[in-house]
């Protein structure tokens, strides 16, 4: 009887453990969710800056009117690519460019790209659409950069990194619990087979 009670108690404990694991997984950290959304918006804005600068460079080289503007736009494209890669927070990149890990540094880089995108607008009548795109892209990235700088000064980036570490350790604990649960079920099946 005691053995049956133990066997009956195990599935109940297992179901409560897996239920707790499901509850922990169901809710995410609101700060991390907001940061991921903002990072996605910033990356899209930087991609828009890349497109605008590529179009400007192509027009500059095609017309042959201002080669220096075309070269300047090529540099803006390369630096805007760094902004996009920084928003992915890829560990390999962050290891080599520690400055991009800090939000104030990342924000200053975004402001620099926004200024480069806005610089030297060509006010000719046939390029008004490109000038409008330059303005939209540069002011959007400027806003993102200012938000990053202010958030970096307020240490929100530090808070985000701390919560990310906590989330990673929580996910690892859930995986360990699931592995333990699987091993317990295997042992239980072996015990049942031995008794039979």
UniProtKB/TrEMBL annotation:
Key words of the record: Coiled coil, Membrane, Transmembrane, Transmembrane helix
Domain of life: Eukaryota
Keyword Lyase recorded: no
Coiled coil: 163-190
Transmembrane segments: 33-58, 70-88, 100-120, 140-159
Keyword Endoplasmic reticulum recorded: no
Entry protein name: Golgi apparatus membrane protein TVP15
């Amino acid at each position: 009887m005691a053995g049956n009670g133990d066997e009956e108690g195990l599935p109940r404990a297992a179901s409560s453990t897996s239920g707790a694991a499901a509850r922990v997984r169901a809710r995410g950290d609101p700060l991390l969710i907001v940061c991921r959304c903002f990072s996605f918006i910033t990356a899209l804005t930087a991609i828009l800056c890349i497109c605008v600068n590529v179009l400007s460079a192509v027009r500059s080289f095609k017309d042959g009117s201002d080669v220096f503007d075309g070269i300047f736009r090529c540099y803006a494209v390369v630096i805007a690519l760094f902004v996009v890669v920084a928003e992915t927070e890829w560990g390999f990149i962050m290891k080599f460019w520690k400055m991009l890990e800090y939000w104030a540094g990342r924000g200053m880089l975004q402001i620099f790209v926004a200024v480069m995108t806005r610089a030297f607008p060509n006010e000719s009548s046939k390029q008004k659409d490109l000038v409008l795109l330059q303005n939209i892209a540069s002011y959007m990235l400027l806003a993102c950069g200012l938000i990053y700088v202010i958030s970096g000064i307020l240490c929100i980036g530090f808070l985000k990194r701390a919560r990310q570490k906590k989330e990673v350790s929580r996910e690892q604990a859930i995986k360990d619990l699931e592995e333990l649960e699987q091993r317990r079920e295997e042992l239980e099946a072996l015990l049942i087979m031995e008794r039979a």
